[in-house]
């Protein structure tokens, strides 16, 4: 039975439609399990101090992975693998052994240093826990999670080999088993070991993410091994190629790291609320921004290589228009229906109404930057297609600094000026709530992202002055329709509240769903009256069988 399962998972997939169906299926399964994971954490803990420990323990391993793990990302290493293995199996094996040895040694060394320094490092990184009784639990959990960057980085490396041999199903199944490991930590690890049991679940998930690919690699006899025969010239080239991308990504991770550090000084549960809201606001980015940028990236690279700047610009305009078209209404619906979304996804058990209100308010501040987050991914891919890695690196560093400084200053302002605190609480309907200071972190994040978007847009428009004008029509149409849609959904909430019992989670879900559908219908009608070309394009795409489009798999970029 087990052999049959591994044979099925490890089989070669070359058919475009078959690969798309299977990748889509496993991507959906992974997202569903991630939802179940957060639901179980919210049910078991609520937004409390114990869960703060779990989320705080992620930060240092996550930063290590973002700073060093990208050395073996598929976008960096895969072309080298294809080139070497196309020459000969032996050269391919030697290269994979070199990359494996260098990466494994680097990550083990970094993790070992952090492991030893943890008692001094953790109180500095998370100052709110410096004198907390749960500090030993945080240190232990973080030490266990140090296995994750090592294992997930190796999984990224192995995925280069599986993708090279068209074993997409192995790669697509990896995030599914990763979330299963975390869920096992909630169900089994926590009752047995406490909070550190959750960390064991994370490490288990990372191991499964890697291990599911090993049977195929062993069957093909291409499992990387430690070696002393290292090609330092090639490794230097890889590092120099990966460095700008690594710094670009780690700048954002560092900014989030500092925000969580600030949250550790706030009321208990602030880190949990921050993470719950951040995970929910990432959904539009994953569905829209990442999808469009991944789909258009190979085309942009080819067009720029062919010096077809006119078509390059056209693809960028169309992609940006559709990102705005989809993100604007989603942003408005998330803001209007934030309480219904949070209560449906997370509500139950120890996650009470107070947790719901605070998480929903923070979610609203995060999603203000939804369009910007999605456009940034597109701009970064466009710059990479042009071979310009310095511009996104510089902009992301500036943005990270702005996020950190804004987070610090807004936190000071929140405590120093009661008028500012009252304004924010009243605006987001959380006046009288405990722990509202965490809201300024979402505001700081969105301010940094908006600045990041403006700078990327400005830099791109300097090279392509014709870029901005076509987007104004899309912005006007989407904004107008979205505002009317949001207002319609808001008004209908009262109507549906009289139909469904709001004391039940399913009643809140149906209230939000029906209000969202009603608002969406109104928004679509407005766009039809405006003869919106993006709506027409979507309709034409659906008729053209959108499911026939290839779905590129995404690599792991954070723990």
List the helices and strands and how they pair.
Elements: H1 2-9, H2 16-45, H3 49-68, H4 74-87, H5 89-125, H6 135-145, H7 147-164, H8 168-193, H9 195-211, H10 214-219, H11 232-263, H12 270-305, H13 309-336, H14 338-346, H15 353-367, H16 370-385, H17 390-416, H18 418-427, H19 439-463, H20 469-497, H21 505-529, H22 533-543
Helix pairs in contact: 2-8, 3-5, 3-6, 3-7, 3-9, 3-11, 3-12, 4-5, 4-7, 5-6, 5-7, 5-11, 6-9, 7-9, 8-9, 11-17, 12-13, 12-15, 12-16, 13-15, 13-16, 13-20, 14-15, 14-21, 15-19, 16-19, 17-18, 17-19, 20-21
Describe this structure in words.
By secondary structure, this protein is mainly alpha-helical. The protein has a domain at 1-243. The chain has helices spanning 2-9, 16-45, 49-68, 74-87, 89-125, 135-145, 147-164, 168-193, 195-211, 214-219, 232-263, 270-305, 309-336, 338-346, 353-367, 370-385, 390-416, 418-427, 439-463, 469-497, 505-529, 533-543.
